């Protein structure tokens, strides 16, 4: 079945007033979409933890947010309710499981609640490399380490109040994902010529959203909403490590104003994070609206394969409460047929506007 992507002007979310003790974590908040997301959550009143790998860059970003808030206060004196933004830096390098663990342990040791967890950080590269943990770097950065964070923080999220959200910043690129059930990380491939391996990591995020929502439902946990989203084609630093041709196309996209800016690029994330209408919901969003994601992403048999593989990758790192076993009937013949069909699909070409 075909799908329609939301096109045209970017829809804006409605700002809300967040209690001063509402806690949000935004990964990759030092630049781009994460920067605008963190800043606006703080403007709305939340305590925001910027979970980033480069302290100097992030602290500069925090200073810039504070300066921008001073300007905001002078222009929007009615809606600027607070004297200062509550911003906190925490170190997190998603390309290292050790660093990810340390981040989780440090956060848990603080004893804070957690109301909004935004898994935003991501990379797009053409050259495949392997991390210190022997995983493909995009797979680990975009997907695996975020998975680990979520699993460790679930008990805190579960007990932090009636309206808690997990947001996975995925991409339209997930429609063009290369999926090989025998090589989930694409470790046998050397290059991501058309960004379809990047799309694979983004596909896994959408699958995780569905699987996690299903598991929460099975456990009757109703206070946590789970969302995956496409932020739009946004002019950010993400194209910096792409091969020259894609960089040039990206520049053209930017100069033709096809790409939007980071301010608008954060709208859908912020909508999923704060819209009162989305309490306890789950789904895939684009342009502040629900959208049909790819068939592969919705395929339960494929979701199970990826979920189980993820557990194998993280077996020495996951908390005891994590569940690898799938107790629904995921091996029905219908799903198996679907699995065979979708696993055989090959990647289509992806342009930078499909990052
Ligand atoms: N831009 C688009 O058109 C577009 C489209 C679809 C989806 N997305 C998604 O949107 C999200 C944000 O991307 P963006 O466009 O805002 O890109 P960006 O400007 O490059 O920002 C990416 C952020 O991720 C951080 N990051 C990268 N590797 C990390 C690591 N190992 N550990 C911790 N943080 C790390 C970066 O930190 P440093 O500052 O230290 O590099 C930066 O803060 C990504 O998940 C991306 O896939 C973007």
Structural account:
- Pfam families: adh_short.
- One of its GO terms (molecular function) is oxidoreductase activity.
- With 355 residues, the protein is α/β, with parallel strands linked by helices.
- It has a single domain (23-354), classed as Rossmann fold.
- Helices cover 41% and strands 12% of the residues.
- It has 11 helices and 8 strands.
- It has helices at 32-43, 55-75, 97-110, 137-158, 196-218, 244-255, 262-265, 267-274, 295-298, 300-313, 333-343; strands at 23-27, 47-52, 86-91, 116-119, 164-169, 224-230, 282-286, 289-290.
- It has an 8-stranded mixed β-sheet, sandwiched between helices.
- Strand 2, helix 2 and strand 3 form a beta-alpha-beta unit.
- Residues 327-352 have low confidence and may be disordered.
- Bound molecules: NADP nicotinamide-adenine-dinucleotide phosphate.
């Amino acid at each position: 079945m075909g799908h329609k992507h939301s096109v045209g002007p970017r829809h804006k979310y409605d700002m809300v007033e967040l209690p001063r003790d509402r806690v949000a974590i935004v990964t990759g908040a030092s630049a781009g979409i994460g920067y605008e997301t963190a800043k606006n959550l703080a403007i709305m009143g939340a305590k925001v933890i910027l979970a980033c790998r480069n302290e100097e860059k992030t602290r500069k970003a925090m200073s810039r947010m504070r300066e921008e808030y001073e300007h905001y206060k002078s222009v929007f004196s009615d809606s600027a309710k607070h004297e200062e933004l509550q911003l906190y830096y925490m170190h997190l390098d998603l390309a290292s499981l050790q660093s990810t663990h340390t981040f989780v342990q440090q956060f848990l040791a603080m004893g804070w609640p957690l109301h909004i967890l935004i898994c935003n950080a991501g990379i797009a590269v053409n050259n495949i490399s392997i991390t210190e943990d022997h995983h493909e770097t995009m797979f680990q950065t975009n997907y695996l380490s975020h998975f680990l964070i979520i699993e460790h923080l679930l008990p805190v999220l579960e007990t932090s109040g009636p309206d808690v959200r997990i947001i996975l910043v995925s991409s339209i690129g997930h429609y063009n994902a290369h999926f090989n059930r025998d090589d989930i990380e694409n470790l046998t491939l050397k290059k991501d010529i058309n960004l379809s391996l990047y799309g694979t990591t983004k596909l896994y995020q959408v699958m995780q959203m569905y699987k996690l929502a299903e598991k929460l439902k099975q456990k009757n946990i109703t206070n946590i909403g789970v969302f995956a989203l496409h932020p739009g084609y946004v002019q950010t630093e993400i194209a910096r490590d792409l091969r020259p041709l894609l960089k040039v196309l990206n520049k053209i996209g930017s100069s033709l104003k096809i790409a939007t800016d980071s301010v608008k690029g954060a709208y859908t994330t912020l909508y999923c994070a704060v819209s009162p209408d989305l309490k306890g919901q789950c789904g895939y969003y684009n342009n502040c609206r629900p959208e049909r994601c790819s068939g592969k992403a919705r395929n339960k048999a494929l979701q199970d394969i990826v979920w189980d593989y993820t557990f194998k990758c993280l077996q020495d790192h996951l908390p005891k409460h994590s569940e690898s076993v799938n107790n629904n009937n995921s091996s029905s013949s219908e799903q198996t047929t679907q699995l065979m069909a979708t696993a055989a699909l090959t990647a289509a070409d992806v342009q930078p506007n499909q990052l």
